[in-house]
Amino acid sequence: MGPLGQYADRIHGYFAFPKLEGDISNRMKFRGKEKLVWSLNNYLGLANHPEVRKADTDACAQYGLALPMGARMMSGQSDLHEQLERELATFVGKESAYLLNYGYQGMVSIIDALVDRKDVIVYDSESHACIVDGVRLHLGKRFVFPHNNIENLKKQLERATRVTQETGGGILVITEGVFGMSGDLGKLDEIVALKKQYNFRLFVDDAHGFGTMGPTGAGVGEHLGVNDGIDVYFGTFAKSMASIGAFVASTKEVIYFLMYNMRSQIFAKSLPMPLVVGALKRLDLVRKHPEYREKLWTITNALQNGLRERGFNLGNTESPVTPVFLSGQTSEGTNLAYDLRENYNIFCSVVGYPVVPKGVIIIRIIPTAVHTLEDVEYTLNAFTKIKENLDAGKYSTGEIVDISK
Ligand SMILES: Cc1ncc(COP(=O)(O)O)c(C=O)c1O
User: Fold this and answer.
1) Which class for 347: exposed (0-12), middle (13-18), buried (19 or more C-beta within 10 A)?
2) Rounded to two decimals, what is the model's pTM?
3) 173-177, 270-274, 333-337, 361-365: segment of lowest average pLDDT
4) Which candidate in 176, 228, 246, 337 could, as Cys together with 100 as Cys, close a disulfide (CB 3.0–4.6 Å)?
5) Do 353 and 266 share a structural domain?
6) Structural domain containing residue 187
7) pLDDT confidence band for 155 (50 / 70 / 90)
8) Of the residues 260, 288, 316, which one is the last residue of a structural domain?
């Protein structure tokens, strides 16, 4: 059944595969009761924005979900797909962009296309599963560096350079803008600085940074002032844009190369028109309404400062992703999350062993622009109480609740 599947009978429908119902907002229904929801990547609050809902509905009425049929290369091309690509490229400061049907598949396929057996991949140890799966397809050497450890990255680059001197290949460094579980940033500035010493190209998965980070929302490269040092940039529509689909941006040459060599797009149907029209509308709102991002950061700062003042360990987050690190067994983590959900009506995700080491519990909170400062205050008070319970061992005795019963 696998590491999580073995608990399926206990967690299915509650901690795993829960059903959140109603319009996407700070308050939704879970098992018929209203909850304060802190677990959706609807960072800018676009999911239920009236203009977004209208654009999606109108586009469905106008085009249906079939158009355009076939892969982009064969028959699935449209002016609107090209327009969205031009607008995305301009927004993230690159020459060209190419749409991807899914972020995950797209990442795997970009990695597969960019390297061959002569090349070496060097990647961060905490990379998202889509990077790990892309690396798995690679037929050449791959070297991993411990998360954000630049000294070790240098060692891996030296090893990689020795390999490529023999094979005649190149080096691709892959990391993330915002690490989605811990909220810390890839050290893109330090990595870009290494280009003076080593010959490599940098590919950044900025799924959580696109729309949330940087003065205009163009991502972590913009935030750290090193956009030009990113050779290949990836963003998804599944988070800030509150939709589905993704894109890759780079030079004209690299994007042309991907258009003609990326298997996930060559051998799959084009992104349906309503998703393209919906993404154009969302991008327009991201550009025209910096106040959505400002509101996201107001909520983020209030929440993170409040939790830190109350003694919670948030690790090294520098993004809206807010992990609360607690010590305890997985059963304590599930009891605690159950208590939050049932007695405080707060819905957030909890992560324990085997996703993180034994003895560590992470409660992951995702602030958005549709949360309020009252939501933050309420949550801070609830967290103070659950921490008291955890420290008093109440969740380990099953005093509050034992979901295994
Ligand atoms: C870092 C990262 N990369 C890629 C993806 C995949 O994106 P999508 O949901 O668009 O497939 C995600 C989403 O979970 C992510 O967090």
Assistant:
1) buried
2) 0.96
3) 333-337
4) 246
5) no
6) 50-288
7) very high
8) 288
DSSP string, 336-400: HHHHHHHHS-EE-EEE-TTTS-TTEEEEEE---TT--HHHHHHHHHHHHHHHHHHHTTTTTTTSS
Per the domain annotation, does 207 fall within a domain? yes
Picking from 42-51, 121-130, 351-360, which range would have the lowest pLDDT averaged per residue? Answer: 351-360
Q: Is 103 in the pocket of ligand 1 (CB under 6 A)?
A: yes
Phi, psi for 223 (deg, rounded to 5): -55, -40
Which tokens go with 276? 């393209």
**How far apart are alpha carbons 261 and 253 in whole angstroms?**
12
Asked, for residue 398, whether it belongs to a domain, the answer is no
Instruction: Tell me: do 300 and 185 sit in the same domain.
Output: no
Nearest C-alpha to atom 2 of ligand 1 is from which residue? Answer: 207
Q: Which of 109, 82, 107, 106 is nearest to 96 (CA)?
A: 82
- 249 and 298 assigned to the same domain: no
Q: Give the start-end residues of each E strand in 227-271.
A: 232-236, 246-250
Ligand 1 neighbourhood includes 11 CB (under 6 angstroms): no
Output the average pLDDT for the chain: 95
CA angle in degrees (0–180, nearest 5) for 158-160-164: 120
What is the mean pLDDT of the segment spanning 251-278?
98
Based on the fold, state whether residues 168 and 309 are members of the same structural domain. Answer: no
Both structure tokens of 99 = 């749409």
Does a structural domain hold residue 402? no
How many CB atoms sit inside 10 A of residue 268's CB?
18
| Total domains present in the chain | 2
Q: Does the CB atom of residue 272 touch ligand 1 within 6 A? A: no
66-70, 226-230, 242-246, 394-398: least confident range: 394-398
404 pLDDT above the threshold of 50: no
Instruction: Quote the ligand 1 centre to 389 CA distance (angstroms).
Output: 34
Sheet holding 33-37, edge to edge: 20-21, 27-30, 33-37, 346-347
CA–CA distance, 308 with 35 (Å, rounded to integer): 24
Ligand 1 neighbour 236 (Cβ under 6 A): yes
